[in-house]
């Protein structure tokens, strides 16, 4: 007996959807995505509370956490809760949401489940910028103070955006075709990875160790200085991405159909790619590269919602929940030794990437 691989649901005609209108904007909605989003919010809330209860050796029960939250805890409990655990959990939530949303946008505009910041070279581009700051800063003295707090995130931001521009420019041939964009992205990713390793070979062992720690993607050093910029960035980028949901849906129907619906295909694809790159750069600047969250979250959300393309809000919620849960696994798997969350997501994501490649190959043969 042979079995055929599962296929995504056919694109909805929109005739069975209800519309939500706010001023000049309108969105369609269905009960199942709302139910999935509500369930993910419950999972996210549970993971966030679990993160507040335990991340280190300092014991805190539910009553202590609740008492500290309302101002009745001692100074030790307040420090652990407000300066260590809460910024770490909040940073993980925001970074995961940004990566999930960025992956949904990229897979939506390329119509390819393999498209993500990791495969398009943006993550490694951000790594090149951050490692360059660490190496050059280390050559000039010490990587600390202003260089560490501002220079590394700024380098990641510039490197990621530069990689996005290079990938889009090299893939442009009277337009951008998704397969060519993905191939150029993979080549750029490999080139940037080798630049990173070359930069590590030029510096001393201390700076190389700092750079390697950053490259693993970790929430260990998360604080309010990293959580607040990520939150402010999401406040701007999340509504902007939601406004473009109709354009992403049109691009998912094919370039010709999108043009027929009045969408400027190449301009829209460039703007959406830049929005996605900004989301990735903000996330990478906060924690270092946490791989595979942007790749897996949109596909998980797509299957949960049974939609024709990755839903933006559900992908963001999935990415946030996935990152928070992975960080708690990383913290508790070999306790008291805590692994970087990027190690756990890489271990889980690599088999998933292989599954997507095999599934894509089987679909191409049918």
UniProtKB/TrEMBL annotation:
One of its GO terms (cellular component) is plasma membrane. It is a multi-pass membrane protein. It comes from the Bacteria. One of its GO terms (biological process) is siderophore-iron import into cell. The chain crosses the membrane at residues 34-55, 89-109, 121-140, 152-172, 181-200, 227-249, 270-296, 339-358. Keywords: Cell membrane, Membrane, Transmembrane, Transmembrane helix, Transport. The keyword Iron does not apply. Gene3D superfamilies: ABC transporter involved in vitamin B12 uptake, BtuC. It is found in: Cell membrane. Pfam families: FecCD (PF01032). InterPro entries: ABC_BtuC-like, ABC_transptr_permease_BtuC. One of its GO terms (molecular function) is transmembrane transporter activity. Belongs to the binding-protein-dependent transport system permease family. FecCD subfamily. This is Iron complex transport system permease protein. It comes from Haloactinospora alba. The lineage of its organism: Bacteria, Bacillati, Actinomycetota, Actinomycetes, Streptosporangiales.
């Amino acid at each position: 007996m042979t079995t055929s691989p599962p296929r995504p649901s056919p694109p909805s005609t929109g005739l069975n959807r209800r519309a939500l209108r706010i001023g000049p904007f309108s969105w369609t909605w269905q009960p199942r995505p709302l139910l999935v989003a509500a369930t993910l919010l419950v999972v996210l809330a549970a993971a966030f509370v679990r993160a507040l209860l335990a991340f280190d050796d300092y014991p805190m029960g539910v009553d202590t956490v609740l008492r500290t939250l309302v101002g009745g805890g001692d100074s030790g409990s307040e420090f652990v809760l407000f300066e260590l655990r809460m910024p770490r959990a909040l940073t993980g939530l925001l970074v995961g949401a940004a990566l999930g949303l960025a992956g949904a946008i990229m897979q939506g505009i390329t119509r390819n489940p393999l498209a993500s910041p990791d495969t398009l070279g943006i993550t490694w581009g951000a790594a090149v910028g951050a490692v360059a700051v660490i190496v050059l800063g280390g050559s000039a003295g010490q990587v600390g103070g202003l260089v560490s707090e501002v220079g590394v995130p700024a380098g990641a931001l510039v490197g990621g955006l530069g990689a996005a521009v290079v990938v889009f420019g090299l893939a442009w041939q009277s337009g951008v075709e998704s397969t060519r964009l993905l191939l150029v992205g993979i080549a750029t990713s490999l080139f940037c990875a080798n630049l990173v390793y070359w930069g590590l070979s030029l510096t001393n062992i201390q700076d190389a160790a700092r750079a390697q720690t950053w490259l693993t993607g970790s929430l260990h050093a998360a604080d309010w200085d990293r959580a607040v910029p990520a939150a402010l960035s999401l406040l701007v980028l999340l509504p902007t991405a939601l406004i473009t949901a109709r354009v992403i849906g049109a691009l998912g129907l094919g370039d010709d159909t999108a043009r027929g619906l009045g969408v400027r295909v190449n301009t829209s694809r460039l703007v959406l790619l830049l929005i996605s790159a900004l989301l990735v750069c903000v996330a990478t600047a906060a924690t270092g590269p946490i791989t595979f969250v942007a790749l897996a979250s949109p596909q998980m959300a797509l299957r949960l919602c049974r939609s024709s393309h990755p839903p933006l809000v559900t992908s963001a919620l999935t990415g946030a929940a996935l990152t928070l849960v992975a960080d708690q696994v990383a913290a508790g798997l070999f306790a008291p030794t805590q692994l970087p969350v990027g190690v756990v997501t890489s271990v889980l994501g690599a088999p998933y990437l292989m599954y997507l490649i095999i599934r894509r190959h089987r679909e191409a043969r049918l």
